[in-house]
Amino acid sequence: MDIDAIRSFIDVSQTNSLSKSSLRLNMTTPALSKRIKLIEAHFDTVLFNRSSKGIFLNEDGKRVLESFQVIQHELDELQQALKTASWSRIRIGVLPSFSLYYMTQFLNLDQLQQLDIAIENNSFTLKEKLNQGAYDAIVGDLSLFEKGQYVHETLYKEPFTLVLSKTHPLNKTAIKDLSSLKNYNLLLLEPPCDTFNYLSHHFKMDATNIHYYRSFESMLTKLITSHAISIVPHSYTNTTYRNLSYLKLNHHKRHIGIVSSNFETLRRLKQITHE
């Protein structure tokens, strides 16, 4: 016996008419009559009194109806609870660059209302908080996340950019390999930092040539007054300084995407971003 049989039984008990209930249930009267008889066969007893005036529950039928109504109520509540849980707001952590420059490419106002969004300074912090359960998903640098432990969807690839003074000799040089930069003082934001992670994996850095800054603005100011260089994600250069040059490193990119430890959460986010 399935839920359709239970709903049919309840409906017939309300209308006292197979023909009326068959119309409400969008089925033929003979099919509904057969369904009622199968329910009676299940309980091995007659549950309705049939007459020219209609079909009416007997005492056994009333007892079955009470149980069926409880079952239907519990199933309806369970369905609503599962629906609410399935479409509750997703807690998601994102990078500042995504929130400032990319988010509106993927999400409109209605879609944003389905999310609880928090901003973290770097992908390391996002990963840590995802592991702690603070977020259901994050948008960050995919290179930090081990295959098999997480599910992910790439959103875009963002090149890194070399930032330096307009008087710097590298302005007249075609940068083909990051190793050609190793003899210059390199200014980076304090770790954890997505740029530091990328550089540490793609070329051997001389730690004595690296200088760290807490503030992005103070780091840029230092670049103007020195022959140091910096490498930042390209989105950081949306605000430019007149005395600085910005050379996009198209062969060096970070892959930004949605990451979650739960496939259903990722599926929902993919559905939201593709609506």
TrEMBL record:
UniProt cross-references to InterPro entries, sorted A to Z: LysR_HTH_N, LysR_subst-bd, WH-like_DNA-bd_sf, WH_DNA-bd_sf
Domain of life: Bacteria
HTH lysR-type domain sequence ranges: 1-58
Pfam families cross-referenced by the UniProt entry: HTH_1, LysR_substrate
One example GO MF annotation: DNA-binding transcription factor activity
Keywords (A to Z) from UniProt: DNA-binding, Transcription, Transcription regulation
Family: Belongs to the LysR transcriptional regulatory family.
PANTHER family: HTH-TYPE TRANSCRIPTIONAL REGULATOR (PTHR30126), HTH-TYPE TRANSCRIPTIONAL REGULATOR GLTR (PTHR30126:SF40)
Entry protein name: LysR family transcriptional regulator
